[in-house]
Design brief:
This protein is an alpha/beta fold and 388 residues long. The protein contains 14 helices and 13 strands. A seven-stranded parallel sheet has the order 3-2-1-4-5-6-7. Helix 12 links the parallel strand 12 (307-310) and strand 13.
């Protein structure tokens, strides 16, 4: 039998490690690729991770078991692309991601654009941030062999704001890679550990303005005013670097309306504990004003949770089996959906239903890796004017 020459993929870590969603994307991609190589295509992939010297060793430890090797870069890719190319070439890299080709020679590249939030919610960005995003996206579209987006919604946005490049675009919806340890024990242990109520809604977004916690707080107040003593558990970072007063405004609303007994703000919890909270929730809320592709909804899909989502096109595109939708500026509509869930007799944790969803999640993760592998294996485009 012929020996299979592995496709050597170079994954550049720096773009993922500056924000929680990026870290989860990198983890899910690496775990999915590792499982795909073992279960579907043994010997087909070799993953090399590249990290700048500014990234602490501790930040890399969790990635070591997921890759063939981790290499420290001696240069900044933007300042010394040719030297960076030399380091990739030395390792025999066939495909680099997320990188755009500004001097990488024969190495195929793809870069990613996660969303176009600054085009739809411009008031949340400074003029400098908006200009830098536009310039960055333009460079990616110009220099990358392929441009990866996570949804057809984002593909349509790219064609709207940067027309004429659709042939280079690849849609790759990401998914959550399910780890057996997530369901190894009864999740209600975590409720006892954190003294959480037995029945509650779960809102698992960092406290940024566009995540729209406000509509949930207003909807919950409507329920409380009607005598429905519902509970809400919020997990996620409490800091919005773009608006330092946002958290104070939300806290003021909770205090003024006496809602603190019903709203638990847990902050950024350990990932395993956060997922145990989600497993116990009556429903997962995703009220965001804008998303590229929601990690929260992919986590909820993994456990087969009911979800109440803002009616964004991308949320409908994610197509969760038990999703229900509301206008993101309509707390009355959301309160109605939450009331239906609260008054039903369906429990939060359903072991049988969860096990069925969890099994499907593993197959989705393998499909995600297979699609990424296909993008990585695509031949580089011919230069203008070239022919066979």
């Amino acid at each position: 039998m012929m020996n299979l020459t592995p496709l050597r993929i170079g994954l550049f870590l720096k773009p993922f490690l500056g924000w929680q969603g990026g870290k989860e994307y990198a983890r899910n991609l690496l775990m999915s690729l590792q499982a795909y190589e073992k279960m579907r295509q043994p010997g087909s992939i070799e993953i090399h991770l590249f990290a700048g010297r500014s990234i602490p060793d501790a930040s890399l430890e969790e990635f070591r078991p997921l890759a063939h090797a981790i290499h420290r870069l001696s240069v900044d890719i933007r300042r010394c692309p040719q030297t960076f190319f030399g380091e990739l070439k030395q390792q025999g890299i066939d495909f680099a991601f997320p990188v755009h080709n500004t001097g990488l020679g024969t190495i195929r590249t793809a870069d990613c654009i996660f969303d176009f939030q600054h085009k739809y919610l411009p008031t949340l960005f400074s003029a400098i941030d908006k200009r830098e995003r536009d310039l960055s996206f333009a460079r990616i579209i110009k220099y990358a062999d392929k441009v990866v987006v996570s949804s057809e919604t984002s593909r349509a946005d790219l064609n709207k704001f940067f027309p004429g490049h659709d042939q280079a675009v690849r849609v790759l919806p990401f998914t959550t890679f399910p780890k057996d340890e997530w369901i190894a024990e009864d999740p209600r242990r975590v409720l006892d550990l954190y003294n959480l109520p037995s029945r509650f809604f779960h809102l698992s977004n960092q406290f940024w303005v566009h995540k729209n916690h406000s509509v949930v707080f207003h909807a919950l107040k409507k329920m409380l005013d009607r005598g429905l003593e519902a509970n809400l558990v919020c997990t996620g970072s409490l800091i919005d670097y773009r608006n330092s007063s946002y958290m104070d405004e939300l806290l003021s609303y909770l205090h003024q309306n006496g809602m603190h007994p019903r709203v638990r703000l847990m902050g950024l919890m350990p990932r395993l504990d956060q997922l145990q909270v989600m497993r116990c929730a009556l429903a997962v809320l995703q009220p965001s004003l804008f998303e590229g592709w929601s990690t929260v909804l992919e986590d909820a899909r993994t456990f087969g949770k009911q979800t109440l989502c803002s009616s964004l096109p991308v949320h409908r595109e994610q197509n969760l089996p038990e999703a229900r939708f509301f206008a993101p500026d309509n707390p009355e509509e959301l309160a109605g959906l939450m009331t239906q869930v609260w008054q039903s007799d369906r429990p939060g944790f359903e072991a049988g239903h969860e096990a069925e969803a969890f099994a499907k999640a593993r197959e989705r993760a393998l499909d995600f890796a297979q699609k990424f592998h296909a993008i990585a294996a695509e031949p580089a485009p011919l230069p203008p004017g070239a022919s066979f």
